[in-house]
Amino acid sequence: MMINSLSEVGVRVKRIGIIGGGASGLMAAISASEAGAKVTVFEHNNECGRKIKATGNGKCNLTNTFLRSSAYHSSSDKDLNRYFGQFDQEDALMFFRKSGLMMYEKDTYVYPLCNQAYVVRDILLHRCRENGVKILTDHTVNDISLKDSVYTVCANGTGYEFDRVIMACGSYAGINDNDRIDSNDDGYSLSYHLGHSIVKVRPSLVPVNCSDDFCKKLKGVRMNAKVTLTLDDAPAAEEYGEVQFTDYGISGIVVFQLSRYIAMEKERNKLLILDLMPDMSEEELKNFLHFRDITGIYMTAGDFLMGMFNKAVNEVLLDIMKIDPEADHESELSQRLDELASLIKGFTMHPTSVKSYPHAQCCCGGVSLDEIDDSCESLINDGLYYCGEIIDVDGICGGYNLQWAWTTGYIAGRAAASEP
């Protein structure tokens, strides 16, 4: 096998190989090259930053001005402020301002002023070109070895020597099965063979499949609700906001936030309990229904629910109660208003699984954070660094996962170029 040495004659600079040309990999390349390193990026696809272009529905939610460690999940108890203290959302905003990107904030979410995600990707690539970063697209890394403090990265039949390697391989999220790297060559496998522990990887921030027969009837309905996830009948997590009913189950940001628990807790009994009128207590709702019953002129059970919810929701509620919509209102529904109130406040769905990786915005699991120090260097191998989605850290919706990419990419690049 041919070895392609990247050392400069007469100048001893750090040679850094970065595996992955996504958000964290490009940030690491910029950070390392600005610190004086000679950087090469290996990207499996025919272009870098594919997933950046798709993030935020093509608008790219860059970061969140309300950055907090509680917005993240990990199997590790390590305080993530040890990383954000080195490069936080203000540092990210300053980085992009200096790069020429104009931005705006909406409810703590930050977007490019042009609302075009590809511009963020193009700016990162422009900074890389300015700094002389070498980018090798259509290059799949299938082996990384260490000997005498030199890493050899094998890609497309060629070996490349580096003083430092940064793993920025990303996760399976948002990638079609046909485009995924073979599991023997992906970042998790490479890391495992380098001695790292891999926390079980699952899709996260993803729609949820449910077994309920009424799903097809509710397809396309959107409404605000408070959604509580229970595990073995005990409340585990709760979110409030818009939910979207689908023919296979349920979706929307609220559901995305809960999906990681459904993905991770496969063996436990899971329920999604929706409060369809979260702004009323159950007692207030009962009083409202009884007042509506007394004061309104309703001929049928279907008439009684008219104007309260989407017609499809009304039909499903009555169907669950086994009441014919055309039945006489007073003889049927009027006698069961307290039961209707309880159903509205506790509309139950039965999740079976989450949608697959191509539908996910990120993944939970990955390389254990407990095996990575505060400079993003491996505690297993000197000179090996990690950044971005490959690490067992996943954030909620709202720009948090991209901020993790910016933070760890910057730290890894700077440390790899600067540490002796």
Task: Give your account of this protein's structure.
With about 425 residues, this protein is α+β, with helices and mostly antiparallel strands. It has two domains: about 5-200 and about 365-420, FAD/NAD(P)-binding domain; about 205-355, no CATH class. The chain contains 13 helices and 23 strands. A seven-stranded antiparallel β-sheet has the order 19-18-15-16-17-14-20. α1 (about 25-35) packs parallel to α13 (about 400-420) and α9 packs across α12 (about 335-345). The protein is elongated. It starts with a strand and ends with a helix. The relative contact order is 0.19. Residues about 1-10 have low confidence and may be disordered.
The largest sheet has its strands arranged as 19-18-15-16-17-14-20
Count of individual helical segments: 13
Low-confidence stretches: 1-11
- Average pLDDT score: 93
Radius of gyration from the alpha-carbon trace, in angstroms = 26 Å
The third-level CATH topology of the largest domain is FAD/NAD(P)-binding domain
Based on helices, strands and strand pairing, what is the structural class?
A: alpha+beta
**Fraction in beta strands:** 25-35%
Q: Estimate the global geometry from the Cα principal axes.
A: elongated
CATH class category of the largest domain = Alpha Beta
